[in-house]
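Researcher: We plan to redesign the surface later, but first we want a full-length starting point. Tokens attached.
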């Protein structure tokens, strides 16, 4: 198969980890006889520095003309500590999602058995956890207008808006995936307080009628934030709106042991974006210690979802599994039982994974 992949490394640890996502794709191309060609784009802080814009037109054009996008992370402390900054790296990511119509963010939360002890949650609670999050990505409070200051800056307004159509399209997608899994779906909302949540419930109840085999349940977001770490094995597909999904998936990352272990896919139209769930991690950027596994898993998701290459994707996951079984770790997933000679740098663990593919 011939495919064009756009690589957007971004800021901070983005380039350090995305290098390994790309190397793994090259390795798979050789092993399975596919022709992957790579082009590169800038976005985030690096793009603001070079062009003044967080998402330059050139990057967007390249994105539209590719078959899939492998993205790293964006963000820089300069903007995080300056709430008055008008141009911000995150605007690049929000804009590319909107421009490409990527309304669904899919985040698999699966624990490698070898990492049962790397999580702060008890192993017996965690064992067997396998959750697929569906987070709505282009609506809700992150996009609703007005978003402004009033009263000389002393009052702030954010607006949460959802339409029936926005909820229906992601609900159908989530139910379709649930049918291919354990056939359980939980909608997370705050329907006891929010009008938008009541619309979510109404629409999901409606869509559920077309999927009688799926056991559908409903949970308030506050209850879910507790249940997720108390009994994670109870859940299969979790569907939720933009902000709740943003928060809950970071919480769920602790099930997998580290932010450095989770990938996500943003889909919805022709071209999807595949990325680690973590940010640019300025605290460890440039030190060569970032965990590249989330980027490598993003490459695996890209192969499976964008190109339908299931066995190629599995061979990546198996190689990660073997690397972990052989005792190799980056610092973030090491614990007191780790043989310190097997705590590796980003590049060293990347090489180990490639060797095992
Ligand atoms: P973060 O995900 O960058 O880091 C949170 C913590 O996890 C840090 O201690 C970091 O060292 C650790 N971590 C993250 N990825 C890791 C990896 N691969 N290996 C080892 N440890 C890892 O979140 P943050 O610190 O809240 O945000 C930093 C910047 O990233 C901010 O500017 C934020 O806006 C941005 N951000 C970007 C994205 C994105 O690009 N999708 C997502 C979240 C945050």
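Model: Full-length starting sequence:
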């Amino acid at each position: 198969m011939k495919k064009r992949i756009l690589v957007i490394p971004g800021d901070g640890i983005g380039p350090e980890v995305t290098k390994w996502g790309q190397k793994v794709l090259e390795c798979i191309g050789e092993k399975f006889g596919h022709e992957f060609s790579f082009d590169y784009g800038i976005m985030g802080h690096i793009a603001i520095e070079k062009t003044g814009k967080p998402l330059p037109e050139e990057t967007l054009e390249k994105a539209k003309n590719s078959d899939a996008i492998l993205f790293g992370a964006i963000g820089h402390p300069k903007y995080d500590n300056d709430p008055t900054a008008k141009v911000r790296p995150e605007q690049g990511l929000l804009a590319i999602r909107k421009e490409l119509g990527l309304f669904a963010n899919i985040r698999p939360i699966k624990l490698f058995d070898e990492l049962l002890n790397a999580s702060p949650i008890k192993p017996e609670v965690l064992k067997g956890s396998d959750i697929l999050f569906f987070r709505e990505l282009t609506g809700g409070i992150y996009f609703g207008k007005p978003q402004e200051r009033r009263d000389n800056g002393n009052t702030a307004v954010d607006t949460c808006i959802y339409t029936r159509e926005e909820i229906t399209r992601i609900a159908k997608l989530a139910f379709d995936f649930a049918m291919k899994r354990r056939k359980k779906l939980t909608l997370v909302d705050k329907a006891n307080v929010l009008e938008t949540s009541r619309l979510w419930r109404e629409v999901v109840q409606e869509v559920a009628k077309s999927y009688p085999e799926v056991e559908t349940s409903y949970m308030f977001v506050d209850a879910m934030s507790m249940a997720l770490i108390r009994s994670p094995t109870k859940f299969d597909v979790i569907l939720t709106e933009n902000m709740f999904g943003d928060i809950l998936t970071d919480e769920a990352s602790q099930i997998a042991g580290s932010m450095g272990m989770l990938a996500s896919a943003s889909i919805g139209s022709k071209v999807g974006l595949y990325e680690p769930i973590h940010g640019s991690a300025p605290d460890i950027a440039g030190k060569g210690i970032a965990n590249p596994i989330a980027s490598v898993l993003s490459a695996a998701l890209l192969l499976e979802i964008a190109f339908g290459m299931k066995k190629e994707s599995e061979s990546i996951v198996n190689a990660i599994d073997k690397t972990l079984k052989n005792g190799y770790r980056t610092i973030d997933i090491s614990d007191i039982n780790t043989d310190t000679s097997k705590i590796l740098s980003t590049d060293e663990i990347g090489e180990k994974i490639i060797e095992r593919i």
